[in-house]
């Protein structure tokens, strides 16, 4: 009987030691986490928190333990948290994105929260919450959206067609000007292969240009004929650049300028230049003949004076 009791005491002591070791490991993980980790009751009162909570909030742990989550959140965010507190008893977990939190120095930061219900036996005890500061990420996302919007406005209002093409020649994107030049709607252009947009006689040059861009990274081609949707030919000037993802070629960005009117103007100008050159030759010829005639008249007048 005595030996059995000693054995049970030993087992309990070993279990206790393992629990203490496990608890110590848990504390180390929580205390050194990059995210805020805290517990609160069902009214939002803080019960415990890690070191990161002090870093983000600006408050000491001693101050936070006397506070309620409502004091750190704006009105809208607190309403969302209250809803989560009510629902977590049934859902066991609750995720809340983009809450607005006020730090001790008055700075507003954006946080994401992941909450889980803690129980003792079957009885809900408290809520554990993991919070991540996403303020910088939101700034980057906003800057990215603004940059994308500027890029979109530039593309949509560009005087040239701007397209992106896969390495197989399939159109991936196109702006409004591409519609005007080709006669196709953007939805019709997407996925279409560039081979369908040029006459058959021009295909070898097109394939050669695509081959060259893989080696040189860019190309410029003038007088490129484009077949429009209504079977007309539009002459263009195309410049292309190869974009890479990492070290691998990824997509070709092409800028297409309609030079059809410019070609017509150049042809008309060349005709005028040819006409002027012909007239100039005739005029020079006449001038030369007039000079010869004047010289003969002068010679005759001199002979007549001698007699």
- CATH architecture verdict of the largest domain: 2-Layer Sandwich
Q: Provide a count of the helices.
A: 9
Average the pLDDT over all residues and give the rounded result: 83
How much of the polypeptide forms β-strand, as a percent range? 25-35%
Walk across the major sheet and give the strand order: 2-1-5-4-3
- Uncertain segments: none
In CATH terms, what is the fold-level topology of the largest domain?
A: Beta-Lactamase
Q: What features would you describe in this structure?
A:
The structure is a single chain. Strands 2-1-5-4-3 form a five-stranded antiparallel β-sheet, sandwiched between helices. It is elongated, with a radius of gyration of 41 Å. The termini are far apart. It is α+β, with helices and mostly antiparallel strands and 307 residues long. It is 50% helix and 28% strand.
SSE topology sketch:
Elements: H1 2-31, E1 36-40, E2 46-49, H2 51-57, H3 61-64, H4 75-91, E3 93-102, E4 108-120, E5 123-133, H5 135-156, E6 161-165, E7 171-174, H6 176-182, H7 186-189, H8 203-216, E8 218-227, E9 233-245, E10 248-258, H9 260-306
Antiparallel strand pairs: 1-2, 1-5, 3-4, 4-5, 6-7, 6-10, 8-9, 9-10
């Amino acid at each position: 009987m005595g030996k059995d009791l000693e054995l049970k005491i030993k087992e309990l002591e070993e279990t206790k030691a393992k629990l203490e070791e496990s608890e110590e490991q848990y504390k180390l993980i929580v205390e050194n986490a990059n995210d805020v980790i805290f517990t609160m009751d069902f009214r939002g009162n803080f019960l415990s928190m890690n070191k990161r909570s002090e870093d983000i909030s600006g408050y000491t742990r001693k101050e936070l333990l006397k506070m309620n989550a409502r004091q750190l959140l704006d009105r809208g965010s607190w309403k969302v948290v209250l809803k989560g507190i009510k629902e977590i008893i049934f859902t066991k977990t609750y995720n809340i994105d983009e809450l607005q939190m006020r730090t001790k120095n008055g700075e507003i930061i954006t946080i994401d929260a992941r909450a889980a219900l803690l129980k003792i036996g079957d009885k809900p005890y408290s809520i554990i919450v993991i919070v991540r500061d996403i303020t910088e990420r939101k700034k980057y996302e906003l800057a990215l959206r603004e940059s994308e919007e500027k890029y979109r406005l530039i593309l949509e209002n560009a005087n040239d067609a701007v397209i992106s093409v896969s390495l197989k020649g399939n159109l991936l994107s196109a702006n409004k000007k591409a519609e005007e030049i080709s006669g196709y709607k953007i939805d019709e252009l997407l996925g279409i292969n560039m081979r369908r947009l040029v006459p058959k006689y021009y295909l070898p040059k097109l394939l050669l240009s695509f081959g060259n861009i893989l080696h040189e990274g860019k190309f410029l081609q003038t007088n490129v004929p484009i077949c429009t949707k209504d079977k007309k030919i539009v002459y263009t000037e195309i410049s292309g650049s190869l974009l890479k993802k990492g070290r691998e070629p990824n997509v070709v960005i092409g800028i297409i300028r309609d030079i059809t009117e410019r070609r017509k103007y150049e042809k008309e100008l060349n005709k005028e230049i040819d006409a002027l050159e012909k007239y100039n030759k005739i005029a020079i010829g006449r001038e030369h003949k007039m000079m010869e005639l004047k010289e003969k008249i002068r010679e005759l007048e001199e002979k007549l004076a001698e007699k």
